[in-house]
Amino acid sequence: MIRPTCIIYPWSLPTSDIAHLTEVIQNERCTALLGVPTILFDLMQYKRQHECDFKSLQLVILSGAPVSAAFIQRIESELEPPHVVQVYGQTEPGRIATTSFVPTDRPTQRYESMGKCVPRREIKIIDVSSKRIVPLGETGEICTRSFHTMCGYWSNEQKTREVIDNTQWMHTGDLGALDADGCLYFRGRVKDMIIRGGINIFAFDIETCLEQHDAIQKAQVFGIPDERLGEIVCAFVIPKREIDEQELRIFLQKHLAYFKIPKYIRQIDAFPVTINGKIQKFKLSAIMEQILRNEDNMT
């Protein structure tokens, strides 16, 4: 069956003009919305302050950045679309590699996974150092392979060889794990992995834990240099209400190993993002280092 479809591109970037995006959804009665999590976060914020009608939305597709189960549940509760799905992919290997738009009665797969591999594509998870395939459930680098992977970067053979090996596997630079059913769980970027005293720490696990606390809307975790440990764990949070840091640390101690608990937790009004709405963690690291320097100067 073939159905007529209309794709609407707002005249302004959704991350810079959420009011215009809201107007487009309402006036055009859009049935599906594809966007990065920042857009959905801003839509929910906007809806709390203005009268909005998003009842036409039947499907919300999240891509471009990982989200927690709590965030998806908030979208379902506040925007009320019948379906919220995640997709994983990159431009170089041909866009979408997995989608969570698959039937499942398991909450973990429904809310935490990026779904299963799409047809005519392969996925494997390899150890970052040895490049060998890791057992199911273990975290490693996500590699994909398909007939529509790019041939290479224009006039940059060295960069091409860094990401596409001689068996045509694309090394994404992303971290993830596969379960026994083939569902992919995103764990962050290889370059965002925090190495504290020789221990590999995945920021996404800590972010997910932080966002389960009822005082926190969004959290971002990252590392900053430390003379003794190499790196230490830090976090910025956007609060829902006033946060008692001692209460928050007690909460984290119940759910995380001691070395994963951020040494420094600070509040921020908004995360720095790219023009496409992706959060820039390197800027968060620089902001945190400046805050800590200022605090040292005041003592």
TrEMBL record:
Keywords: Ligase. Residues 7-154 form the AMP-dependent synthetase/ligase domain. One of its GO terms (biological process) is fatty acid metabolic process. InterPro entries: AMP-bd_C, AMP-bd_C_sf, AMP-dep_synth/lig_dom, ANL_N_sf. One of its GO terms (molecular function) is medium-chain fatty acid-CoA ligase activity. SUPFAM superfamilies: Acetyl-CoA synthetase-like. Residues 206-278 form the AMP-binding enzyme C-terminal domain. It catalyses: a medium-chain fatty acid + ATP + CoA = a medium-chain fatty acyl-CoA + AMP + diphosphate; octanoate + ATP + CoA = octanoyl-CoA + AMP + diphosphate. It comes from the Eukaryota. Pfam families: AMP-binding, AMP-binding_C. Belongs to the ATP-dependent AMP-binding enzyme family. Acyl-CoA synthases catalyze the initial reaction in fatty acid metabolism, by forming a thioester with CoA. Has some preference toward medium-chain substrates. Plays a role in adipocyte differentiation. This is Medium-chain acyl-CoA ligase ACSF2, mitochondrial. The lineage of its organism: Eukaryota, Metazoa, Spiralia, Gnathifera, Rotifera.
